[in-house]
Each structure stands twice: as structure tokens, then as C-alpha cells.
Amino acid sequence: MGKVERIVFLSLVLDLFAFTIPLPLFPRIIEWYTVREISDPNGLLSRTLRFVSAVRGIFYKPLQNSQRWDIVFLGGLMGSAFSTLQFLVSPHIGSLSDKYGRRNVLLISMIGNILSALIWIQSTTFASYMLSRVIGGLSEGNVQLATAILSDISTPRNRSKALAHVGIAFAICFCIGPPIGAYFASRPVPLSVGALQMDLNVYAAPALLTLILLVAETLFLTIALPETRNARPDQHDNDDLLEVHANEKSKAASALRSVKERSELLRVLRKLHFLFLGIFSGVEFTLTFLTFDLFDWNNKQNGALIGSIGIISALLQGGYVRRAISKVGEVKMAHRGVSSCALGLLFLAILPHFVSTRPKLAVGLLRVAAVCLAFTSATVVSSLTAHASLQCDEGFDKDTGKPTTENPELAKGKALGEFRSSGQLGRAIGPLLACASYWTFGPSVTYAVSAIAMLTLSASMKTVAVLPERS
What we know:
Structural class: mainly alpha
Number of helices: 17
Strand content: under 5%
């Protein structure tokens, strides 16, 4: 791992650690605000919960714990709102990084993240907490800019290995962030903070930890991260050097058709990214519905299930994907992940039929499905992202050494920002559609239809146009 790769990986761990800390707290935070603001029928939370209850009532009317379902659904809506903001802002963050540099835009985005954490610490109303989430959604740019930076410094040959660090950081932090957030949720704030005599959020302790992580990340990036826009990729071996010379020769012979093909392939990859995450994020969100509804699992059991998926995904990323993807290819690796997801969904679809008659078999099917989903998590997004980045590589003039951009639409920041934006739109829509289906038709139909959708997506990936193989 090169120096810049290490810097990017460590910053991602800090950033995603901070991002995952509040994930298990959403339902509890909403419950706390509900107790505080229940007497104000015209408050933002009361009006929002009435809207959520009305929407939920169209699809599902539980015999008991209706308020609990509403709170869980509102937590999902908050996640969808965050993804919607990312959908809107990601292309602009990417374009700004092409113009002003990755490092500068990343440091500015970190200011927004720090402001979001500061507001969370003091958010004693639901409206102020939502303001914190909105600022965070508009500011979060670390993942997409890390992808652009790793694309800047890597050659096409080692691009997939470099971008695998993003997936590994995700898997690690989704394992450790939520349980640590839950632990600090039960801890009081430090006496030095309490002595300031400010009104604090009930979960000011995890919010303070988030703030500390973000400040540490910002200082680390300020000191350690160089600017990589227009940087020439490091050459680690003779094969990479020969590859660059071959690419430079091919640049002169490239016709407009090549640019058009790459732009079209990026459009197809954005569509695949949107459809995949639309389905997959719905599965992720309703998985805890399934365990609560059919197995009556508690938060600890759900956390163990989700944590096991993260651990398996991290091991696969580091032990399998990084080694195999250069031989298999990005599209084929993503295809395997989508097929694995379809298989996992089939297990989830038949699982409810065995809950009452053969409960051990039902739990076994859930665990096998979790392994399938872990393989999917380890392969699909990172592979599609790597393939998208390969379509917007910039060449270098052999005389001046300066970068030459074929087309503004193929600039890394802009193209990868639009690619991430498409996935975030899927993440915004998927959980809502999955909830509506789960409550209306039940888990078997929901997961069976999702499996068919994944199989269809898997079949369509075979027709994806692939540029000539890297030599």
C-alpha cells in the first residue's frame, strides 16, 4: 500500500467510524424527542409522525406496537433523506474537485461534517437534530473524493486493488461503529462538557466522540494529504510502465467513437448502480423487520447478525476480492456478487415457511442468506466503481507530462460523482419501496420479487459493453 493510499484509508476509517456511530441510535433518539415534544401537536416531530403513521396505515396496521413501527419507519425515512441529499450534491462535489482540487474540496466538506456534529451535541429539539442531518448530508464527500484520489494515483492495472480499500474501510467501520455508538449512548458526557451548563442531546456522549473523530480526521488530512488532481500515477513495476506507454500510443489513435462509448458505458454503469442499490438497500433495511417480526430478536441479536455480515465482507474484500479481481475483471466480479444476492434473497423468501414448523432450519437459512449478502456487499459496489473509474482515465502528454482530458464528461471527479449520485438515489428509494411491499404482501413475496429483480439485473450485466482488456 502506497503512502497516499494509507492516508486515504486511515481517513476513511475515521470518517466512516464517525458516520456509523449514530446508526443504531435513530429509533432511541426519535423516542426521546417524542417524549419531549409529545405535548406540542404542531411541532415538527408530531406532524412528521402523523404523516408516517398515515402512510404506514395504508400498507400495514399492526395489532400492537404501532408506534414502534412508526419510529422504525421514520428512522428509515431519515436515512432516505440523507441519501437524497447525497444524490443531489455528489455530482457538484465531484465537479468542484476537478476544478479546485480533491484536497481543498475534501477539507471544506469536513467543515460541514464538524458543524453537523456540533449541532447534534446541542440538538434538544427534533428540528435542530434534522438540521444536523441535513448539513451532514450536504457535506459528506469523503467516500467519493477518496475514490477519486485513489483513481488519480493508481494505474488501470491496479485500480481495483486500490479502490478495494474503500470497501474494506466500510466493512470494518460498520462492524465496530454501531456497537461503540450503542456503548457510549449509555455513558454520561464528560464533566468538562457538563460544566458548560448547556442543554445537550440525550446522546451527547456519542455525538462528542463523532466530533472528536471528525476533527482528528480533518487535522490528519490537512497535514498528510497531498493534492492528487493531475498527479501522474505511481508506477510500481515494469508491466505498469509498459501499460502507460501503450495507453499513450493509443490516445493518439482514439477516435470520438471511443469517448462516446465510454460515456455510454458510464451511463449504463450508473443505471446498474441505481438498480442494484435500490434493491439491496431495501433488503438491508427490512432484514431487521424480518428478525423482529418472525424471530422476535432483540437489538443485541440483530447487531450480531449485521456485525457478522460486516466481518465476512471485510475478510472477503481483503482476502479474495483484491487478489481475484485483476484476473476475473470488474464486471464479472460484480456479476458474481449480484448472483449471490439473488441466491440469498431466495433463501429469505422460503424462510418464513419454516419458522413455526422447523425453526432451526429457518435460522440456518437466515445465516446462509447473510453469508450470500456479505459476498454481495464485498464485491458489487467496489467492482462497479472501479470499472466506472476506468472509463474516465486521463492520459498524459508524453512530451510535457501534463494530463490531457479527452472530454469534460469523462473528468474523474464529475463522472465518479454522478456514479455515486445514482447509487444514493437507489438508497433513498429502495427502503421505502421495500417497506411498502413487506407490509402489504409479506416477507416471502417481497424477497421473491427482489430475487427475480436481482436475477434480471444479473442477466442484463452479461450484455454490458467492456472496453478492450488491459494489457
